[in-house]
Amino acid sequence: MRLELRMEYLGTIWERYHKASKTSKGKILDELCQALSYNRKYAIRKLATMPQKRGCKLTQRRRRERVYDSEVLWVVERMWKAANYPWSVRLKEILRLWLPWARRRYRLRSEVEEKLLSISASTIDRALREKKGSLKRRLYGRTKPGTLLRHQIPVKCEAWDVKQAGYVEIDLVSHSGESGSGEFIYSLNLTDISSGWVETQAVMGKGEAGVRKALDLIVQRLPFALVGIDSDNGSEFINHHLWKYCDDQDIQFTRSRPYKKDDNAHVEQKNWTHVRRLVGWDRYDSPQALEAMNELYGEELRLFLNLFQPSVKRKGTWRRGARKRRLYDRPQTPLDRLLVSQELDQGKLLELKTLREQTDPFELSETVNQKLERIWELAHYRPQLVSGQKKSKSQLNELSSVERKTLEAISQVFRVNVYARTKKGGELVTVSHG
Q: Which pTM was predicted?
């Protein structure tokens, strides 16, 4: 059919279509699709965008009124930043949990409080869509497998299904930066399977005695007794020190399969959310950095994450066709998960609950950020061999004399350009061999 006839036919159909009932509109669309070989959705769009004729009024699409105004979304954004940018489902629970302190800090009206409690996770996602930005960097571990005692420590590869607190996974997170040489700091991360309670301790190097001592310090802070430990196959864990410790304390000791990170999925997730996202990928190898990190891990950060940060646990997984669906429980903090357990020491848990009621999470978040700034200042940047553009001498003078001589020696010996990060602002400084 020619274009002129098609448009004339569409004009006739348009008048019938907008005067017809809902049932009749479906029949008219069937007729139009059969006559012009249109796709049904394309036919609907054509009829919706045609100009009005003979005074027939098109019904305007009703727009939904905006429920959450800028004041509500402003509070949501502030609490999202203070809580370290959590997922919307967790943020919805944080809005409820942190409301008493948010009421005093932001002087919330009753209408705003009601909207904060009724806002959905999907609405939060839409409101924060433009604000979200994440830097994704790939991590490569520096753990070498240990062979000692491997035949005596059983492999645990099935999924953990425990209701009792005390079964934990442990792992080390390296802070070596761009160079794996020399001695540098590791973060020993311990994650409880049942409650999600996390404790972290920084240790210089990954010697057997040092890791064992760090584990002792973590156990003293735990609000529950240690029942079982599951680790990877690194020599820092598979050794006589830790094996004898577990045997003396009657603690179940298991290990994962080599090169199977999914066997330690719980602690691997916390390595990212509780260590890497906060401390970053820089190199830390000084006693000052070790002291600053342990001061943060052992005080404000553990309270902020375990008392004020809710998490979700997966209840089940099923497939519907090619799509995998996961079902999660209600977001709860690790402390709330421990409070419902009758097998634990209720005295310690009540002390933690009282401490949470007396602590302002916004002030705690600010303290954590201040201590992180101090830790970041202690990062150590080592020179790397790269090609680059020559910088001015004023920028080079920001480096120490030892670092400057090292750069110049490398550039002359290897006849290549080298660079290092300056202490002020982390800017790259390049020294040319020419």
A: 0.67
